[in-house]
Amino acid sequence: MKNAVKDVISNHMSLREAAERNDVKFQTLARYVNKQKKSPNESIHMKPKYDTRRIFTDEQESSLVNYVLQCSKMCYGKSTKDVRILAYELAIANNVNVPKSWKDNKKAGVDWLNAFIKRHSNISIRQPEGCSLSRATSFNHHKVNAFFDNLERVMQRCDSFSDGSRVYNIDETATTTVQRSNKILAQKGVKQISKCTSGERGSLVTTCCIINALGNTVPPVMVFPRTHFKTHMIQGAPAGTLGLANPSGWMTSELFVDVIQHFIKHTSSSVDRPTLLIMDNHESHLSIDCINLAKEHGITLLTLPPHCSNRLQPLDVSVYASFKAFYNAAIDSWMLRHPGVPFTIYQVAECVGVAFEKSMTPANIKSGFKKCGIYPFDRNIFTEDDFLISSVTDRQVPTTSTNMGHEEIGRDKTDEMIEDEFSCQKEQNLHTTKENNSGFISPEQLLGYPKAAPRKFSQNNRRKKSSKIVTDTPEKLALEEKQKERERKSSLKKSKATKRQFSKLLEDTDTDEENAESFVSDASSDKWDPLEDLENQQEFLGRPDTDSYVLVKFNKNVFYIGKVLEVFKDEKEFEISFLRRGEKNINFFVFPNRPDISSITDDDIKYVLPTPRSVGATKRQNRFLDFGISFDNLDVR
C-alpha cells in the first residue's frame, strides 16, 4: 500500500494503474492517498485496525483455546453453542464490554465464533466418534502399568519372547454380508444418494486373525452361522484357513479350543518352543479346556485389560481398519461384477481373502506392535495426553478415622457427606477466582474441567477384570474355581425350576395353599401302572359305550384318551372326542378349547378306562380329569 501511494503521489501514476501494479484495491488506495495529501509531512498508518471490535486479548483467547482443546482430549468437547455461551460468561466474569446482542442472547455471536476459529488454525469443527464410558474410563495408568508388568515378566522367561519371534496377537472381527459403501460420484445438489447392498442388516461371519510381532501371519479362522461346516464355505479364503460353524456366527468356548489347536499346528508350539499369545479377556477365550491345551503346548496366554483393546491390541490399532476398508471395497467390486445377485455368506471367504492379502502386510503388523509398546517393549509409549480421557473419573481415596472399619464407613457415610466431598472442587475454584480478581479469570477457574462425583461406598465384592497371565497356576486355579461355582449355580437353578414345575400342576392356580396341598396329594394317590401286568388288566377291556372313556393307540406306540360320543350300528366304528394331556402333570387330561372329534375303529381301542373324577375346587381345575391311573410309561399325548 505504501508503494502504491508513492507511485500515485511521487510518480504521478493513476489510481487504477498503481492499484493494479501493487495488487491492492483502488478504492482503499484512493482513501490513503487523500490522507497522505492532507498530511504530507506525517507518516500515515496504513494497516487495517482489526483489533477495533475484538472482545478478548491474545492472551485471553489463548487460555480459551487451551481449555477447549483440553476438554476435547478428555472426551467432553465443547460444541459451537457451548463455546459461544462460555465466551459470554467469561466476558461477564471479567467485566469485559460486549455487544448488546451478546447480552440479549446470553451468548457470543456467530460472527465472533467464525473469526475466533480463523484466528486460531489449530481449532476446527470436527465430527467426534462415539466412545463408551467403559472404554473412556478403563484406559488409565493403573491398568496399563499392570499389563506392561505382566508383559515384562513374561518376556524375561524366554529369549524368543524378547526378540518378538514368538509373540502373537489374536482377535476376532465381524465380516458381514452388508458392506459399508464408499463415496461415489453423483449429481451435485441431490439430497439422497443410494448404493445397492445385498440386504438391510446382513449375516454375521466371524473372522479370527493371528499376527506375529515380526510381521508374519497365521491363516485365519472363520466361524459361519450354520449348524454344520461345509468345505465350500471357505472357497477363496487364504490358504490354510480353518472353517468352523456356530448357529449364531459368534466365537464360543468350544470353538476357541479348535482355534488354539489351529494355532499350535501352524506355529509348532511346544514346551521346547514356547509362544506368547496376547488376546482380550472375553469369556470365550478363558475356558479351562483352552487353558489346559495351551499350557500343555507351551503357550503363555496374556490377556489385555478390559475395554483397552483400541490402544493395546495391535490388530485393532493398525490392521483391522485397513482390513475392513479392503473388505468393503471387495464386496463393492463383487456387487458390480454380479448385478442383481445377493451377496451371501458363501462369498464372504472370497472377499476376506482379498482383504487379508492387502491389509496383513509386514509394515502394518509391525507398526501395530510398535504403537502398542509390545515390541519393541516400551512401557512409556503413552503420554499424559493419552490418559486425559480417564482423568475425569480419577477419585481421591476417602480418608477415614483409624477406629472406623469398612462396615462403619458404609453405614455412617451419608448423602450429605458425599455432597460435601463433591462440592469441594467447586469451592476451591471459587477461592482461586476470588484471589485472582485483579487478573483475568480463566475458563478453567470459571468452570473447571469435567470431574465425576465421588462414588458411594459399596459392599459389592465382585472382582474386577484386569490383565492376567491366565496360564500361570494361580490364575488357572482361580478360573477353575469360578467355573465350578458357575456350574453349581446353574445346576441349582435347574433343580429349582424342576421342583417348581412339579409342584405347580396347573398353569393358573387361584386357590389358597391348603387347597393346593390337598389337590397334589389327592392327585398322586392310588396310582398304578396299566403295563405292569397286562393279564391282570383285562377287566378294563370290554365294549365301549356312549360317554365312556377309552385309550386309543396310534402309530409307533402313541396313545390318546378320548370320550365316546356315538356308537354306530355295527359297533365296529366310534365317534371320539379326544382329550389333551396336562402340561404340568401327565396324568391329568382336559378337553381342548376347539373340540378334536374323529372316527376310529374298534381295533384302535386298547382299554376302556374307569370313570374319571374332576380335580381341584375351582372352575378351572374342574376341567382337568383324573382316571386314577399312572401313564408314566406310556407316550400319551
Mean pLDDT comes to: 82
- Please state the overall shape, judged from the principal axes of the Cα atoms: elongated
CATH topology name of the largest domain, in short, is Nucleotidyltransferase, domain 5
CATH class of the largest domain: Alpha Beta
CATH architecture of the largest domain: 2-Layer Sandwich
Number of strands: 16
The share of residues in helices is 25-40%
Summarize the structure.
The chain has 637 residues and is an alpha+beta fold.
Q: How is this fold's topology laid out?
A:
Blueprint: H1 2-9, H2 15-22, H3 26-38, H4 58-73, H5 80-93, H6 100-105, H7 110-119, H8 133-138, H9 141-155, H10 159-162, E1 167-176, E2 204-212, E3 217-224, E4 242-245, H11 253-267, E5 275-279, H12 288-296, E6 299-303, H13 309-312, H14 314-337, H15 348-359, H16 362-371, H17 406-412, H18 415-422, H19 424-435, H20 443-446, H21 473-503, H22 513-523, E7 549-554, E8 558-567, E9 573-578, E10 580-581, E11 588-590, E12 596-601, E13 605-609, E14 613-614, E15 625-626, E16 635-636
Parallel strand pairs: 1-5, 3-4, 5-6, 8-16
Antiparallel strand pairs: 1-2, 2-3, 7-8, 7-13, 8-9, 9-12, 10-11, 11-15, 14-15
Question: Can you tag this structure with a few keywords?
Answer:
637 residues; alpha+beta; six-stranded mixed β-sheet; DNA-binding
What does the model show?
- There is one protein chain.
- This protein has 22 helices and 16 strands.
- It has 637 residues and is α+β, with helices and mostly antiparallel strands.
- It folds into four domains: 2-48, no CATH class; 56-119, no CATH class; 133-181 and 199-388, 2-Layer Sandwich (Nucleotidyltransferase, domain 5), CATH 3.30.420.10; 526-636, SH3 type barrels (Roll), CATH 2.30.30.
- Strand 2 and strand 3 form a beta hairpin.
- The longest helix is centred in the last third of the chain and has 31 residues, at 473-503.
- The chain is elongated, with a radius of gyration of 40 Å.
- The model is unreliable at 399-423, 430-438 and 505-539 (pLDDT under 50).
